[in-house]
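Data availability (excerpt). The following record was deposited with the supplementary files.
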Amino acid sequence: MGWCGAKDWRMPTVKELERLADLSIPYPGPTLDTAYFNDTNTVTHPWYLSSTPYAKWADDTWYVHFASGTPYHSDRRSTPNVRLVRGGQ
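Predicted structure:
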């Protein structure tokens, strides 16, 4: 069945997540439009996982921190939030 009637959801790349951030909003943000993304937790858990691996360390992947809009890398076994996207990259 999928979510919202769609089955083509996927993990976004780090660049796609970065494009959601409004960098004109200062820390502690949120740098995301909370009227549109009303379920985004930028207070207690602002990290959102991307599908982009971190090239230097095999166990790391890229995240976007939506309190600042900044990308970071960390161990992919941590417990980040996920924001899925649809369609092509």
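Summary of structural features: The mean pLDDT is 86.
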